[in-house]
Amino acid sequence: MTNLPNIGKPATNALQNIGVTMLEQVAAMDEPTLLKIHGVGPKAIKILREALTEQGMGFQSDESLSKDFAVICDFECENAPKKRMIRDYLIASATANQADLEAVLEEDFVWTVPGEFQIEGRQEFIKELAAHAQPISTLEIQSLLTHGKGGSAHGTVTDKRGKKVYFSDIFVFRSSGKDAKISGLTSFVVIED
């Protein structure tokens, strides 16, 4: 692992606040996303680009990750349709984007938060997300696994005030086919005080 180059205190602090401390983590991000992080400016981007090039790396170029917030993930999804679907679900759910959620969720989708509640139906789920949507600054996906009809992911969502929500999601797909939509989700959530 390679330490971050000297990009200035504001940019270093901004990246550390979202858990980015190594150059390899920066390589998992794209330039437009980095520029959306308060404290990271064009000068820091230039220094990071040069450091990445020296190490034989570069910024992420996946346009589907470009949103109004930073998306940090270090896995390739283009040859793994279910991983891509989970990634797209996580991005869409962070903003309650109805069209993107409808693209990946079955109509009879069921969301369970053990010990708290269960919501049945895609539209009811989307309404629930929209009712509690908060402006976020960062979505960090720390791991993502899929196999057959199942999948899982965990990570952190940081809102614009710096409050963190830690999540662990277990996904069930309608079938093991590569285009199968998500039919069920069990979520475990810890909200930072």
Automatic annotation (TrEMBL):
SUPFAM superfamilies associated with the record: C-terminal domain of RNA polymerase alpha subunit (SSF47789), NTF2-like (SSF54427)
GO molecular function, a single term: DNA binding
Keyword entries, A-Z: DNA-binding
UniProt keyword Phosphoprotein, yes or no: no
InterPro entries membership: NTF2-like_dom_sf, SnoaL-like
Pfam families tied to this protein: SnoaL_2
The name this protein goes by in its record: DNA-binding protein
Organism: Listeria booriae
Lineage, uppermost ranks: Bacteria, Bacillati, Bacillota, Bacilli, Bacillales
